[in-house]
Amino acid sequence: MDKYMELAYKEALKGMCGKHGGPFGAVLVKDNEIIAKGHNEVLSGQDPTAHAEIVTIRKACKKLNTIDLSGCTLYVTAKPCPMCKGAIQWSRIKKVVFSGDYEDTKKLNFDDHLFSEGFDEEDDEWSQVDPDRFDILIRAFRSCEHDIRY
Ligand SMILES: [Zn+2]
Fold first, then answer.
1. Confidence class of residue 7 from pLDDT cuts 50, 70 and 90?
2. Whole-model pTM?
3. What is the b/e burial string over 48-84, where b = at least 16 CB atoms within 10 angstroms of the residue's CB?
4. What is the 81 CA–ligand 1 centroid distance (Å)?
5. pLDDT tens across 74-130, in order?
6. C-alpha 77 to ligand 1 mean position (Å)
7. Of 6, 75, 79, 89, which is least packed with CB atoms within 10 Å of its CB?
8. Count of H helices and E strands in the chain?
9. Contact present, 79 and 123 (Cβ < 8 Å)
10. Separation CA 124–CA 144 (nearest Å)
11. 3-state secondary structure of 100
12. Burial of 91 per CB tally in 10 Å (0-12, 13-18, 19+)
């Protein structure tokens, strides 16, 4: 597995086990250096916008003291939702690598598929790796037995 995706998975597990939110983790990399990592904090922060991508982008911008993350690659455990795609575009991140896709998050009853359907798929530098790996997070999420829906 890609080492950065591995870290994104670790972030997802950390957030899930801490009951911060769903099985989503992200790592932002520039020139082979980890700039920031984060996980979903929707529940712990009582913030519906605290998706792993947003949390990570906020940390990276503070760390680099910029709002322009050009040249960075975002690794995320599942394909970004439309809100995160907007944040990715606003922060000028061109490369996104994800593992699970919308079909996977649908299995968890996350209802973002309702507004992801028909979502523009023309993501020029987005790519998927380890698509089957997301099942690990699905199983872990279910075993945590929390009732997270958003
Ligand atoms: Zn999102």
1. very high
2. 0.83
3. eebbbbbbbbbbbbeeeeeeebeebbbbbbbbbbeeb
4. 4
5. 999 999 999 999 999 999 999 999 999 888 888 887 766 666 665 665 666 888 888
6. 11
7. 89
8. 6, 5
9. no
10. 36
11. strand
12. buried
Q: What are phi and psi of 56, to 5 degrees?
A: -70, -40
What whole-number distance in Å separates Cα of residue 146 and Cα of residue 62?
32
Distance 17 CA to ligand 1 centre (A): 19
Q: Is 109 helix (H, G, I), strand (E, B) or coil?
A: coil
Is 76 in contact with 98 (CB distance < 8 Å)?
yes
In the chain, the amino acid numbered 114 is L
DSSP 34-95: EEEEEE--TTTTT-TT--HHHHHHHHHHHHHT-S--TTEEEEEEEPPPHHHHHHHHHTT--E
Q: How far is the CA of 112 from the centre of ligand 1 (A)?
A: 8
Give dist(CA 144, CA 146) in Å, integer: 6
Mark the residues whose beta carbon lies below 5 A from ion ligand 1: 51, 81, 83-84
Q: 130 is written with which tokens?
A: 């380890």
Active site residue ranges: 53
Report the alpha-carbon distance of residue 72 to residue 35 in Å, rounded.
Answer: 9
